[in-house]
């Protein structure tokens, strides 16, 4: 493999065609050769932040095998660049590619805090946990600039509304003051993704994410401050991190996590092609083995969208992974569990008006 052929700091290595577009953009070899001779950059590999103006921010989740009923996303696209990310396909609805565009064209929803507050103040809304980052990470690099996630947490705290967070970024500790206040009334739970104990694996799978050491330190800091944390070993990819299940569970438990959970990798939609291109460029010696084992878990295909089996898979390899997770939970989390969030406080804090009846 020629290292120069790999786009540094990115997961996807190409822009796949958008399934909704009749035409597609192609980077031709003769153009690349011309750029090389002229000393020009064919692709500047820069991230752009683009403001968008949605009318709503809270989404009702209808998928039967996802453990949340409502979610919200302050950003669309994610600069973390996780090559396996299921959310890549959603970028096509915005007119972009699920490949490099997903990592380099980040859509920013500055009005998210106002939209959130208007939603949870609706007369007929009954409090139910709303999960931040059901699609893309609310603590990705853009948050350092826009601070939308922090503003949303202030809304949740103001109205005593339960919230869940999914992230793989230690930047969450920036908002520890708000998170601790929410935790005092059992109004928050954090799901923190840790996919490997190997920095080498992390760097190729998730090139712009927080180091594993910092993630585990984040788990410890949160739990030491009374914040419940569920460590997500997700996704598990056969022959890449599947051998790390027990060590990961042990590390999560030792750092104070309340629970662990997992999903099996699923390469739905455009992600199958993106992942295949990536692994053949970055891990060429093991590419065929990994791809065939993923297919073995999903009925002979990389693209599995069947409710009930897409998250856990089927077949011998998937069964082994499930059994290892059960063993890990019995061994390291036997007496631990995630608390149920408090949905009773919000009604009296929905508005500042006094209620007489």
From TrEMBL:
GO terms for molecular function: catalytic activity; iron-sulfur cluster binding; metal ion binding. NCBIfam families: rSAM_PA0069. Residues 68-296 form the Elp3/MiaA/NifB-like radical SAM core domain. Keywords: Iron, Iron-sulfur, Metal-binding. InterPro entries: Elp3/MiaA/NifB-like_rSAM, MJ0683-like, rSAM, rSAM_sf. SUPFAM superfamilies: Radical SAM enzymes. This is PA0069 family radical SAM protein. It comes from Seonamhaeicola sediminis. The keyword Metal-binding applies. Pfam families: Radical_SAM.
